[in-house]
Amino acid sequence: MEPPRNLTMMTDLYQLTMMYGYFRHGMGENLAVFDLFYRRADEEISHAVAAGLEQAAAFVQNLRFETSDLDYLRSLRMFDEDFLAYLANFRFTGDLNAVPEGTLVFPGEPIVQVIAPLTQAQLLETALLNIINHQTLIATKASRVVQAAGEDRVLEFGLRRAQGPDAGIYGTRASLIGGCEATSNVLSAKLFNLPVRGTHAHSWVMSFPSELEAFRAYAEVFPDACLLLVDTYDTLKRGVPNAITVFKELRERGHEPLGIRLDSGDMAYLSRKSREMLDAAGFQNAQICASSDLDEEIIWDLKAQGAAVDIWGVGTRMITSQNMPALGGVYKLAAEEVGGVMAPRIKISENPAKVTNPGVKKVYRVYDKETGRSLADLIALADEIYDEREPLHLFDPENTWKRMAVTNYTLRPLLVPVFKGGALVYTLPPIEEIQRYAKRELETLWPEYKRLHKPHLYKVDLSRPLWDLKQSMLGNG
Fold this sequence. Notes:
Blueprint: H1 13-24, E1 31-38, E2 48-49, H2 53-61, H3 67-75, H4 81-88, E3 95-98, E4 104-105, E5 112-117, H5 118-149, E6 153-156, H6 165-177, E7 182-183, H7 186-192, H8 202-206, H9 211-221, E8 227-229, H10 235-252, E9 259-262, H11 267-280, E10 287-290, H12 296-304, E11 311-314, H13 316-319, E12 329-338, E13 341-344, E14 361-368, E15 374-381, E16 392-395, E17 403-406, E18 409-413, E19 416-420, E20 423-424, H14 431-443, E21 460-462, H15 464-473
Parallel strand pairs: 6-7, 6-11, 8-9, 9-10, 10-11, 15-21
Antiparallel strand pairs: 1-5, 1-12, 2-4, 3-5, 3-19, 12-13, 14-15, 14-18, 16-17, 19-20
């Protein structure tokens, strides 16, 4: 795990001005509930893969204002000394619930729930959104790439094109949660105990008098990990034949090559021809790796065209989530203590997508007992109790005439306690465990929800008590 760092000041100024206002009006210690969730970001994205909880937990654990932070805030001449003294002893003392990393999540349902004094809950907003939005976005993109690749392996190659060091480091982590097998990013591999992979670039080949000499030199250094980049000059006339020559020499010395990498040109055609040449030379087990501005759409098309690729090295388009550069996660007040009682809160907008769900809530995933597949998610009020022996009546919260009664089902609460009374109570799992969990999550989803194009919309329903509360607060009750 990476060493802890203090991100307390990674916030928007308006969080601090609101905190100061709450403090001055005696509201700062009132209990508040905030939900972090994402709105529907893209019609092609039916679900997201939650990621970033480990870094979010580290942020909360290290929440404190350093002397230099207080000196800077004092220099702004916006806050009085009483407030700065309050910040000097500031720590998180509340509760935080979240879905485990790798969980499939859908628009509108809480990914993180914060229950804490108002000033504390308010300060968490910016950093939590930054961390969860980014890693969930990249994990979701990676998941789509891995799904498109099918049984083929996917490697993450995006560091040099990531939008800064943190985007590269944590984007790599998220991409492995999304299903990538390994990364070329050495620092991320070190920090998070990830498998690391890599061979050589075109500059290696260009540094030698000939391509054949470059290949021989590389094979000499890495005889048991020899994967050669064959497209520096002419893939089929020079690159692959030279690679085969070196592979034969390796075999004579008792070593087997890993294969070749293609980084330019028509990947479908070149990979098929390369496969034919390798097979004819007796290297049926030599693998073909393809890279060069790949994403799920390109991989899907190349596979449809019969590309003979075993490993996909995916970089820019995945690490930047090029077609969808932001997840659209938000952090909204759902309830607040008034006179010792938790009062629900709702945001109303002329845009129906921006109207929030009020109250302290929990989220259930509904599974069919026979198939183990997920049928729907149910957002309910925290005090609701369900008996799995009784039929579960679900309805579309917008088109209420769409209804179904579910029998022979199981319910799984999605939110788990992460912090209780300011203390971390959740065991953060290693990345390989998160990967296995994320894979199992996908297996519970029916295929129609996983289509790359025009996926079927998964049902995220409100319980009747929550729906009634929302309608009453909208003036419809």
